[in-house]
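Hi all, long-time lurker, first post. I run a small reading group and we've been trying to get comfortable going from sequence to structure in the token notation. Rather than ask abstract questions, I figured I'd post a concrete chain and ask someone more experienced to write out its structure so we can walk through it together at our next meeting. Sequence below, copied exactly:
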Amino acid sequence: MKSMTKLMVVAMLLVAALVVAPVAAREYVGDNPADNIGIYNISSGDTVYVGEEHLELNESDFNGTGPNGLAGGSLVHFTQFSDRIYDKRIMITDATDFKLNPTDVGSVTGIYHVFARGFSYTDPAVVPNGTINVEIPSLKLDVVLTKSPIDSVDGKSVTRDTNVTFKLENNLYGFSELTNDADKPKLKIEVTLPGGGITTEFGNQKLSNIYVNGSQATITIDDISLKGCEAGTYTARAKWYDRGPGASFYGKGFDSNTVTFEVTTKAVSLTSSKDSVVRGKTFSVTIAGESKTSYILFVKPVGGLGASEYPLIAPGQPGVTNETSASIGSFNVPGMASQTLVKGDYTQAWVATTAGGTRTVQFNTTTNTDDRQYTIRVQDLLDHTKYDEVKVKVEKGAVTITAAGTGTYYIGEEITLEGTCTDSDTVYLFITGPNLPSNGAFLENPNLKANDNGAMNFTEVDVEPDDTWSYKWNTADSMKLRALDAGGYTIYAVSAQKDKEGLSEAEYDTISIQLRSGFISATSSGAVIAKGDDLKLTGTAQGDPDEVHVWIFGKNLQRNEPATVEDDGSFEYELKGAVTKELSAGQYFVVIQHPMMNGECDIKEGIPGWINGTPGSGFEAVRIAGLQASDAANALIKALDSPNIDDTYVKLTFVVEEPRILINPIGDIPAGSTFTISGTTNLAVGDTLNVEVTSAAFTPTEKGESSGFASVARTTEVKAGDGANTWSVEIDGSSFKPDQYIVKVECIETDTTATANFNVVEAVPTTQPPVSPTETVTTTTTATTTTTATPTETETPGFGALLALAGLGAVAYLVLRRD
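-- Answer (accepted) --
Happy to help. Here is the structure in token form:
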């Protein structure tokens, strides 16, 4: 309630102040003798501008602030007047002569309240002495066309036949209260001439002593003629005078912006962006003539050429039209027959220039454009002496093609074709080679002719803005439609839809490639593996298949699974130890199937236990689940050997044995010596063996009594050997006492163990000859399962030789390559 009362009191005081304040306005007092800058008396409500000097506050409007009161005070800008929240305060030391410095005001403009010195400007109960409006002076200069005042020529070219208007926009409405022009600020427009001179008289018009009429936001100096002006670049700028009223704006950065324009002597001119252009590309021409004037632009006729064989004006460009008009539908050019503007014939068009007297027009060329030099002309139809011409040569482009890699590829691979083309925006590809149409075949479907009685079957590839193109040809996709023979092929890249017979009508390039049939090779990590060991099948499948198919046949195993082929053609398939541990001892047969050219395995498992052929192969389903391992493998191979099946394969065998570890005889070992324990095994290379050597005299001892026996533990890995894998470990027997010792060897991976005994004897003095060991060492081997004897060799179709090799424990490996 108290706050409301206080606000009402403030409001009443403000109203009272406004009532008693006499109506006054800005007054020009005269020039200050010291600096010739005008002195202005300011009343409440007036607008003042940043940079003004010698301002005095009207003593009657600002009671207590002028000469009859205190000497100074404050100008305060409030963001919330009722609560006296402010963001700018300007101190006035002398109200009869002060100035508004740019640093004092900054960017805070608008209404400022005046407070006499000694009065609080933060107390809502205190009534300010009045207000002034603070603005930053603004002065903008432009040069426009007299006949089209909205079109500026700043940064443009105009001819001598053009009339222009100088236009000044300002915000100095604060001086509108002054009735005498001489009391108002004045400025001048300085024009810098092409030779460097500066003038305030241009086009027979005076540009000096321009008084700022505060009531007129825009001052114009109209209809300035450029006739007789020197050709070149002109610069114009409005500046404040350094004496009299308004001189306080001089030299403080409040002059206008700069306007630059060019005056040309030629009535109309034509320039081209290029002297020559490869057909299929664009070029542009620029007309420079009268402002806002229409000209006819056309390509001069060439005998024997159709309209589509010329460079053509791109339709839809601003200021460019191909339409005829009622007044002008035909035109005459000296030395030429009468020309008629035909709608749709883009060898010609009406072109309207901009305010700057210019217009840029784009021309397009295609592969149909005849390669020759063309003359392009711009013509003023009202004055035949006003014209210009430019010559542009259109040239044939070129096409190139390359293939990534060596040029030799396996059927089924993806081949990257790439190159350049400067003759068109599209490259057309086709192929020739064994059993293909002589004039070319469709790359994606070699069954189709590239040009079959007007049916265009070309692979179309877009040309990038940098004139390059690229295409990935998947030969496997093409093989699904037509089998490609191994051999040499030629791929054509053409700038138009032309087959081999029509190459003379287009630009082209060729590349030769060799296609080879895919093949597969493989090997196993071992011809003989122990139960519980991993088995790896590795190999290479050329022809870029996604995967190969692995078939394994054995006594208690019939398995078929895919194996992924990597980008480099390698593949790997692994039988983990958990699988081999459950396998029966004996021989196993492996067939690894390559899908070949069509990328599809044509022999595959249908109903579990049966193999089927792809539709159309003529292969009848065969049940292999009830066949012995070798018979099942040979049934699969017989199916793959069918002439209707393009798949190829490789076959391998391996033997699974019960795991065993053998310890070589150790003999008697002299006490304190270092010796080696070794042996052989059928465990896989890299398997880890724990070797423990323990004294047989192991008995408990009393506290404090030294041990009566010695023990050593070591680990080692199985190494590849000649015929059988080997292992060995070195034992430091320096702490061994004469006694009998037990050796225990255990495999971590297969849970297989073996033991043996040996004796440590007293060391023989070095002066005596060594004693030969006489005691025979007994070696025993213990395995988790019974070792299966090597199977008797049997003659099996397709795997006979491999069976014989496996029976001898050798690596069974064979690679078959299909032609």
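A couple of things your group might point at:
Confidence is low (pLDDT under 50) at residues 1-22, 772-798, 800-819.
Residues 108 and 593 are 85 Å apart (CA to CA).
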